[in-house]
């Protein structure tokens, strides 16, 4: 599919992920500038096709999603076209959607069938106000004065509309937007960490870090691995359950040492890096864990395209450890001193310039939806848009399976 798309999280005031919206680009922006308009208005909707094919579990872990619609799409039978739970879909109207009586009638009908509706902020409040009774959300660009004006109009009309502030990249901006009436917020703030003076890591996290360090050694010992795992009952049970469910027929294995020998170093490393990192991330915003996992698989999937196929495992670590500072609540420099990391991965995460850094930068650009730069890199490196899409979509699907089956039961070849 010639579609670049990234689901971006929208948070509530408690900094919990509430919904997602789609950032997208059709084709290569530098070569096919006119393609976006054609695809946006194509029949059937490519956005619904994408969501239907990928599924909400993979895209959003089952949370609601905003799907862009155009004047053309509003005329379609979207209720028949939608294969996912309609109550988890909000139709997002951009500024080119006409505020006509016909569209108002369509939105009224679509809300009756179960959809929610949303608008991108417009300066023409008077024209938008007739749509307030049929509107659930309005996206604002994060301007605090505009949020206050918008909320005043919503209260005046006694409408039940939630204002979503976009572009919230710091905790200060987050607090300011909340004070001024934003109920939902989007931005990069969740990827940052406030570093405090006491950077000591909790004993439980130290145990997990030791486990990561053990399995990331070139030739680790099963006895030492088992000794660290047995310090955490939940982790030990999870490991034995995974080995017995996927690798054992007949009598169940109860020895950690035996289970480790049966699984082998390569698969132990995969299990530990996913299971332990997910556990470390439990005290951080849930989106941080999701981000690290999807980044890890996306980096790994890009290996061949960047002529780094032999480094797939280390590219996985690159994505996985890219938010280690947020998870451990310290600086990235201090986090990487705690965890054994291959030197090329360490260099890339510390802002150095190497092949790993190029992949890492590409992944960050993709997440932010900087499609023109993504298109330029694709053009220079002869990357196909469809291959990039498949690499990212497969990472989403992989994470969806990870969530569905639990981290302990998910070890891939």
Give the topology, please.
Layout lengths: L2 E10 L4 E10 L8 H6 L5 H9 L1 H5 L4 E5 L1 H4 L3 H4 L7 E5 L7 H12 L3 E5 L4 H4 L8 E4 L3 H13 L5 E4 L5 H9 L4 E2 L17 H13 L6 H8 L3 H15 L8 H8 L1 H16 L5 H16 L10 H9 L3 H5 L3 H7 L4 H7 L5 H14 L2 H10 L4 H21 L8
Parallel strand pairs: 2-3, 3-4, 4-5, 5-6, 6-7, 7-8
Antiparallel strand pairs: 1-2, 1-8
Helix pairs in contact: 10-11, 10-14, 11-13, 12-13, 14-15, 15-16, 15-22, 16-19, 19-20
Could you describe the 3D structure shown?
This protein has 413 residues and is an alpha/beta fold. It folds into 2 domains: 3-191, EAL domain (TIM Barrel); 203-409, Hypothetical protein af1432, CATH 1.10.3210. 52% of the residues lie in helices and 11% in strands. It is built from 22 helices and 8 strands. The chain has an 8-stranded mixed beta barrel, surrounded by 6 helices. β4, α6 and β5 form a beta-alpha-beta unit. α16 (312-320) runs parallel beside α19. The longest helix has 21 residues, at 385-405. The protein is elongated, with a radius of gyration of 23 Å.
